Amino acid sequence: MRSFLVAFVLLVSPAVALNIVIAGGTGEIGRALSTDLGPKGHTVTVLARNAFLAATPSRVSEDFGWLGERFMSQNPHVTLRDWDGGDLLDIVGKDWMGWQDDALKGADAVVNLVGGYTEQRTMATERIVRESLRLNPMAMQITMSPVDGDIGMKLKRDRVATCEKMVEANCLNFACLRAEMYDIKGACKQIIDVIDSLEN
Length: 200
Known about the structure:
The chain is an alpha/beta fold. It has helices at residues 2-12, 28-37, 51-54, 69-74, 99-104, 119-135, 154-170, 184-198, and strands at residues 19-23, 43-48, 78-82, 109-112, 140-146, 174-179. A six-stranded parallel beta sheet has the order 3-2-1-4-5-6, with helices on both faces. Helix 2 links the parallel strand 1 and strand 2. The relative contact order is 0.15.
């Protein structure tokens, strides 16, 4: 009878709620991933170069990511946090100081979706890795990038590979994932599978 009770308790115990940080979370994958993580009980902090503009009722500029006021009200498990985006010369948010302590210190997983595949992604990856190692080296580091066939320029493919190598060489817990460029559901599933593995 006792083993039955233990098994019953294990079956009905709720999943562990995790703290997930998403850099580049204002894009299409970040929006879908943030939404999917809510029903699982996870909290999500989206790092945005300008949290104010990311939450406005209407998109103000194509230069900055945007989730919108409606998205934020429908997803109370999501918060926005200004950060420097890895480039201290391109800071646009008003409250970027201390993002590392606010977001990374308590993170169970850090998801890097920073796009563009410019030098900005390399700088952002370096910043995330360095600050995570300083504050929370056990956090799972997840990078999501397109498959090589979807990245036209060799320079951009090399940048993606550089970011993956940086994570692999420095992080204790990591998953460098690839998905086809427009496979939003497939990309989210891969990331969620890694996050789900942390609950066990």
